[in-house]
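Repro:
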Amino acid sequence: QVQLVESGGGLVQAGGSLRLSCAASGRTFSMYSMAWFRQAAGKEREFVTRIHWNSAITHYGDSVKGRFTISRDRAKNTGYLQMDSLKPEDTGVYYCATANRPETYDSWGQGTQVTVSS
């Protein structure tokens, strides 16, 4: 099992930036990919982005393409989500998750709140 701890959320004005971090511990050698999801109040959880842990190949949801950037530091077992040009509709709880095989996210962080004011 991998343990994940997110940090970096907060309140920001529209057009601003935030950087989220996701620190992994435990069975990190088994990580295939890391992803970020978000959930707004009253809405279903939404995929944001993912990164293949070894190759750093990335994939983004349509709503964040060109504004968000996912990266990782394998030496630190930490993933990052740089969020630029934030919009009020980006507001929600952001979760990082890891998979030890494609599309099977079995470890989740506790979430960090991101609030974008208009």
